[in-house]
Amino acid sequence: MLLISLGKKPDDLKTRNYYANAPDLRYSGRRVDWDSWEVDIQTLSVNKTNKLGAGAFADVFRGEIRELDLPESTVTVKMLHKPETEQSRQAILKEIDIMKSIGYHIHLVSLIGCITNVQSSSPFFIMELCSKGSLLDLLHVGKSDGGMENNTQSERNSTMAPMELDTIGETKIVTDDNAPILSLKMLASFAWQISNGLNFLTSKGIIHCDVAARNVLVTREMVAKLGDFGLCQRKMDKIPIKWTAPEALERAEFSVKSDVWSYGILLHEIYSFGEVPYALIQPEDMLYHLQHGQRLAQQQDCPDEIYDLMQQCWQIEPELRPTFEEVRTKIGNVLGLLSDMYGYLSVNQAEYFTTSAVQLNDNRDTDESSAMHISP
After folding, report:
1. Which of 16, 74, 108, 343 gets the highest tally of CB atoms within 10 A of its CB?
2. Distance from C-alpha of 80 to C-alpha of 92, rounded to nearest angstrom
3. How many CB atoms lie within 10 A of CB 78?
4. Binding of Mg(2+): at which residues (predicted)?
5. CB-neighbour burial class of residue 28 (10 A; exposed 0-12, middle 13-18, buried 19+)
6. What pLDDT is recorded for position 122?
7. What is the pTM of this model?
8. What is the per-residue pLDDT for 7?
9. What are 126's strand-pairing partners?
């Protein structure tokens, strides 16, 4: 495969998605395959003393990338363990391909670029940095600070500050520095953002297969982004049993509806501040308990409307579970009920939270107004 650098460089996430689909490019009379996601290895530096995480076949480090017009030059870089194997190499290349097909969405951890065409180097998988770490860790910090217990009832129901729209139409929140970091409003906001990302994945025909708080990362601005698409390949050698739907445990039937089940477990993680689901049940006993109707109990700080949604997600029959579009709408309604301050947006609540996921291209490269972010 011949890779060339064209005159007009796709230098940001949104236009890179557009150029990734450039048809029938030719160079000196020959057709060439041009991958706009490939990054010059000379523009990337990796800080191997700053490991952010580790997986089954790769480590994740903090890095810096130059010459791309990005809001933040600091990135995360996934690199294979040494010595690498052909299996691990194919796994990371497959994950990169999945990320390319997904493209950019504000509530998904997005691909910034990759390096796969340097024969002397292992593949590099470059993603945006989410500096707050995983949602699970953030929830654990909230629990150690007392969760919602330190908030008065009025604070629980009215911790939402006025909204304002910035110059590109993205929702921002003007907050009081003394407001609780993890208010009920914030928890519901995380839930909505994740459902928005999953709804976008559904529109792409992609099943995540590992929806859990540990796989949601949070940015400095408290934007939640679903990541870790490795299990989209549906490898059966490793299944997150306590997050997995009964039909997937019993018959390996993964679908959007099994992701909906897992999302219900994630909701429980959010409102329990990161408790392990079904902590007292052994993994080998999970299927029996689920088939006999055992479900997670409602947490003290979980609104009735949210727990009702969890139960809908945990219907034993997949077709009875809601779609992610319906999930997103229901959580949007809860966000509207939690605080009178919600009225600061001059749009209808239901319309705002049922806006279709935006597929960005060169004509709509600033339209991210469907995102709901609450800053601490």
Report:
1. 108
2. 8
3. 24
4. 215, 228
5. exposed
6. 86
7. 0.74
8. 34
9. 77, 113
How high is the pLDDT of residue 333? 92
**Tokens read off for 164:** 């304002």
Segments of the chain scoring below 50 in pLDDT:
1-11, 14-32, 149-180, 234, 340-371, 375-376
Phi, psi of 184 (to 5 degrees): -60, -35
DSSP state of 104: -
- The span from the CA of 289 to the CA of 123, in Å, is 43
Catalytic positions, written as ranges: 210
Which of 92, 93, 68 is closest to 10 using CA atoms?
68
Token code pair at residue 8: 């007009």
Binding residues for ATP, as ranges, are 78, 214
| All structural domains of the chain | 1-129 (3.30.200.20), 133-353 (1.10.510.10)
Radius of gyration for the chain, computed over Cα atoms and rounded to the nearest angstrom: 21
Tell me how far apart the alpha carbons of residues 227 and 55 are, in angstroms, rounded to a whole number.
13
Residues annotated within a binding site: 78, 214-215, 228
In this structure, are residues 248 and 239 in contact, taking their beta carbons and an 8 Å threshold? Answer: yes
Using the 8-state DSSP alphabet, how is residue 299 labeled? P
- pLDDT of res. 142: 82
Nearest residue to 142 (alpha-carbon basis) of 176, 181, 170, 177: 181
Amino acid at 192: W
Token representation of residue 294: 């055992």
57/338 Cα distance (integer angstroms): 43
Question: How many alpha carbons lie under 13 Å from residue 117 in its C-beta half-sphere?
Answer: 16
Closest-CA residue to 171 (of 358, 345, 365, 348): 345
Binding residues for Mg(2+): 215, 228
Amino acid identity, residue 310? M
355 close to 154: Cβ distance less than 8 angstroms: no
